[in-house]
Design goal:
2 copies of one chain form a homodimer. Chain A is α/β, with parallel strands linked by helices. Chain A has a 5-stranded parallel sheet. The longest helix of chain A is centred in the middle third of the chain and has 15 residues, at 302-316. Bound molecules: flavin-adenine dinucleotide (2 copies) and coenzyme A (2 copies).
Chain lengths: 547, 547
């Protein structure tokens, strides 16, 4: 007998599962339920359509019900909400806008209901000038509003990916935009020392940034909304975008007997199977394993949702296919800047009680003698055994490449030695003979081998100023253009001749511009019997984080 | 006692070894001999300086002897040619332009003499209008000549990386350029089915391309050189660039007792040690292991040379450090195009008698709905066990990223399953939820699992036309805009209804535009009892290779 497979949710995870399943099984009966009118749309493109970078609305609609029928023989039922599961009898209940309520039986059920924007219960939240963004109707709604005459200012609440994208896209539309983030920094996948660059880019691009201040209440005065922050700061704007995160859209599953995680995510095994027989779940609504910490986590990203949909379909079709956990690889355009990350950041590792080491490099995107070379900042996180745990990159050209290369190495449990040895493709327009990833590997090798002790700027306060000498090893010119308070200057190229100016009883905390000359100076000092630490990332990093 | 280390060659391998060694050992005596006047120059930038993309000659000089002295305390001796080794007494003989001939003893010797341009012994080769390009003096020489009034045409002999770069850069200078290649195609790291795109780009950019025709003789008539090819074609030009490859610059080592490979490369072990005690060798002059075939090979690339220099220094300093073989990862700008490859190509695998499978995908550089998305062609080569053996990419934006990601996977002996599962960073300006690398992994998985039989265009002749039906599954519009001779048309979206038009006794050879719809059609046909093969890469690949 042919399998009957129901799918709940018709976008990233659901539509991917449907298409894959049909390719694997021409005879299965496949029904895909979608609550809204649209399936298979480009969630990730929505902000850019509002910002008018994407001009043609049709481009957002990757598939239509008709096309899914013609190509994949899928019975797509739009405007059809699944309202519950009867797991014992293998049935779902459906509320259809056109066909009323009915039941549908299944052999297999794949759940991909996604996540819904969080709308906290604070005063004034019900103003119709407060928008969230998840789907095409939300997009139409926001865009129509922005297109109106007289809509000139917006407050975006939340500095996650969607918040930052919306701030940028509304700014592109010529609006006055303020982004409010309750945490000390935006973009949680990044550590604060890296994300400051993205914050700077936003501010320089004209977005007002309010950090470390949450929303207390909204007040709609008819014309505008006034946002009151916890600090009692008040901001008036024509519209509000609320982007403080998503929560699993799983309310309809409450009574199903499904097992949920602490924050309401569906619990699945490696094969995407839930605790209920024949029921699979994928996408934003599920809990997954963090590839690095091995702890349960949730990740609202399209790559994982698509792949999990494919894996669920494989297993329904009788193939063995598993999801091995998420690295959280993610990337974002922040005006001119690219910010990307993979693996764990410092906060995650601290929470998981996993010890780690950190280095920074600031290599150029390609050979410095070839036009257009531009520096990036790369942060590499690894453990005592050398295993790479995470990386963050901020810059312009080529940041995506380096983070994806490191993401690949992490997938194979690669070490910093592996990064040092990677043979990547090189010609002057594309890279350097020592690629930035190799360079990060070299520096990490040196730290692990004790060839250089490094300290991060934020940890410098651990040294009592009595016990150390702050030494700037850049040129006299660089030093006179700006240096740290209390630093003395001996350029690395004259260090060997001027060792007698330094006190061997003290620790020498030295820095250069990015860390390279500081490393060379450290090697000279160390081998001459000095105690020395090199400030990783150099003066550039100190400037970045406003040390 | 302090080590005394001599280094022969002061550029990629040599200077890297010197710098690393000093960082590891502040007390070693390090002497670096360079035959020419310049050290540490950007070999890879030379063509772009001639082409005036790099405008400032100083940018080519990464280090000077004075700076190497100041920073690394290296005794740099330029204009000093090492003329021989006396391994028994651990001495070298030196011919210095300023200090005459002398001997210098060593505890350790690192050889990085590089490769010299091959100048075959054919009639007319000694014309002073025939140039080769290796170093700064060559560059000055060529540039001065090109800068002259009346120099308007060039023939470049050899379609390797340097030949193609020179053809492009001379074209950028407004010259009439013809590139002559004796092999059927340029750029040997690529298979012929991929490289045709680069050839097309060159021709469309105005470079004359003569393939499969070698040079028989040159004749300098005072004004111009006439090149006579094996086919007796004659081409006149104001200058000739000879770029038919490099051979190890090891003549001075003939009597040293060093072991050489069949083509004159120095034989080393993993630690870069030669057969002579205390003597190491790195760079273009050595033989290395091919990471894929495990056979001995040679590779003239800067990344390996730099890394090998660092490894040799490590071992001299008493650290254990190894070179694990070359993947030959390489990349080239061909006018607007990017061509990159890693691992083995079909020719190499055939020579090594290693069975393999091939798939092609033509994904877009980033989400198709976001402006600027542009297709690339990716070829993936893997074996029956799924191990990735090689990849080639040609396109525009993002080709370098995908080849570097696959290069990383190859380094870890990754499989096509690994490629399918890689979690790469995605946002619309940078990639797709299923990255091109994931996509290549998916397609390869399907081929290995027998979910789709693929055939490459070049192998279609294996099917007798009696036994197969050629089926075009694209839309009627695409079909009428151009299709293969004898193909019938059933669009994939109506295939299920029109199965009765096909003869089950014959093999159905079907194609779409790039392979995706062909795959879907193949799944439909296969599961309905047809014998079917999908032409990998689709109509696009057929057009590419001029099928
Ligand atoms: C504005 C925006 C930008 C984004 N940008 C990126 C990005 O750049 N990169 C990235 O990786 N990710 C991005 N994402 C996240 C990505 O889109 C999601 O991770 C992905 O779509 C999740 O897939 P899913 O199938 O789990 O859920 P969804 O794609 O949200 O699909 C779930 C569908 O299920 C339907 N549904 C829910 N409950 C029911 C029910 N009971 N019955 C019937 N139907 C139901 C919903 O209507 C919805 O259409 C973005 C998301 C948004 C909203
Ligand atoms: C035009 C050009 C473009 C290139 N582009 C790229 C590219 O885009 N990507 C890439 O990866 N690679 C590229 N390469 C190759 C790369 O430059 C080489 O692989 C690399 O420089 C090899 O390093 P090496 O140390 O072995 O030799 P070299 O860098 O050539 O250095 C050898 C030095 O040794 C000196 N020497 C030789 N014999 C003696 C002796 N007996 N005594 C004293 N000195 C001696 C020579 O004068 C020479 O300066 C390019 C090369 C050229 C010429
Ligand atoms: C110029 C040249 C001598 C430099 O050699 P080098 O000092 O080893 O190389 P780099 O300047 O790239 O610096 C790399 C070193 O700095 C360290 N480093 C880089 N960034 C750092 C940072 N931010 N903090 C600390 N250390 C850093 C690396 O760890 C590495 O040191 P290690 O090898 O001891 O681990 C050599 O590369 C050369 O001659 N190049 C030109 C010739 C050439 O390569 N041609 C072919 C390509 S065109
Ligand atoms: C549109 C949608 C239904 C497509 O699903 P899909 O058919 O699985 O995905 P694609 O069109 O990318 O095609 C991938 C399939 O084609 C195959 N393929 C791709 N290129 C191929 C080629 N050249 N030759 C042969 N097969 C090819 C792949 O192997 C894969 O098949 P498999 O899963 O059976 O191995 C689904 O991705 C979707 O709904 N997307 C929009 C929503 C979304 O993802 N939003 C978040 C991002 S904005």
């Amino acid at each position: 007998m042919n399998k009957k497979v129901l799918i709940v949710g018709g976008v990233a995870g659901g539509a991917s599962a449907a298409a894959r399943l049909r390719r694997l099984d021409e005879t299965a009966e496949i029904v895909m339920f979608e609550r809204d009118e649209y399936i298979s749309f480009a969630n990730c493109g929505l902000p850019y359509y509002i910002g008018e970078t994407i001009k043609d609305r049709n481009k957002l609609l990757v598939q239509t019900p008709e096309a899914m029928k013609a190509r994949f023989n899928i019975d797509v039922r739009i405007n059809s909400e699944v309202t519950g599961i009867d797991a014992k009898n293998k049935k779902v209940t459906v509320a259809s806008k056109t066909n009323g309520n009915y039941e549908e039986s299944y052999d297999y059920l794949i759940l991909s209901p996604g996540g819904k924007a969080i709308r906290p219960n604070i005063p004034g939240i019900n103003s119709d000038k407060i928008f969230t963004l998840r789907n095409i109707p939300d997009t139409d709604h926001i865009k129509a509003y922005v297109d109106r005459k007289g809509i000139n200012s917006a407050v975006v609440i939340g500095g996650g990916f969607i918040g930052v994208e919306m701030a940028e896209n509304l700014k592109e539309r010529g609006m006055k935009v303020t982004l409010v983030e309750a945490a000390p920094h935006i973009l949680a996948p990044f550590d604060s020392d890296m994300v400051v660059m993205a914050e700077k880019e936003m501010v320089e691009s004209g977005v007002g940034l309010v950090l470390g201040d949450g929303v207390k209440s909204f007040a709609d005065n008819g014309n505008q909304v006034q946002v009151t922050l916890n600090s009692d700061t008040k901001i008036d704007a024509d519209m509000i975008i609320l982007a403080i995160g998503v929560s699993p859209d799983t309310a309809f599953l409450k009574e199903s007997g499904l097992e949920f995680g602490p924050r309401g995510h569906i619990v699945v095994n490696e094969k995407m199977e839930t605790n209920l027989e024949g029921v699979y779940a994928v996408g934003d609504a599920i809990e997954v394993v963090d590839y690095i910490t091995k702890q349960q986590t949730a990740i609202a990203l399209a790559g994982p949702a698509n792949k999990q949909g494919r894996i669920a379909a494989d297993n329904v079709a009788g193939l063995y296919s598993t999801y091995k956990g998420t690295q959280g690889s993610s990337i974002l355009k922040v005006f001119g800047l690219t910010a990307a990350s993979t693996g764990a950041n410092e906060r995650t590792l601290q929470r998981a009680n996993m010890p780690y080491k950190v280095i920074y490099v600031h290599p150029v995107s390609h050979a410095s003698y070839y036009p257009g070379a531009i520096p990036m900042s790369l942060k590499l996180i690894f453990n005592e055994e050398g295993t790479v745990l995470g990386a963050q990159g901020i810059g312009y050209d080529g940041v995506d490449k380096r983070i994806d290369v490191i993401a690949t190495a992490i997938r194979f449990n690669g070490t910093v030695d592996d990064l040092a040895e990677l043979e990547l493709s090189y010609a002057p327009p594309f890279s350097s003979a020592k690629d930035p990833v190799n360079m990060a590997g070299f520096v990490a090798q040196n730290v692990l081998a004790g060839r250089m002790d490094v300290v991060a700027w934020k940890d410098i306060e651990n040294y009592s100023s009595q016990d150390y000498i702050l030494l700037d090893v850049r040129t006299e010119m660089e030093y006179s253009n700006g240096h740290l308070d209390g630093a003395m200057n001996i350029p690395v190229d004259s260090l060997r001749e001027r060792l007698n100016e330094l006190d061997k009883s003290k620790t020498i905390v030295e820095y250069c511009q990015v860390g390279l000359r500081g490393y060379i100076a450290a090697r000279i000092l160390l081998q001459n019997g000095f105690k020395v630490v090199n400030v990783t990332g150099g003066y550039k990093t100190s400037a970045m984080i406003g040390y």
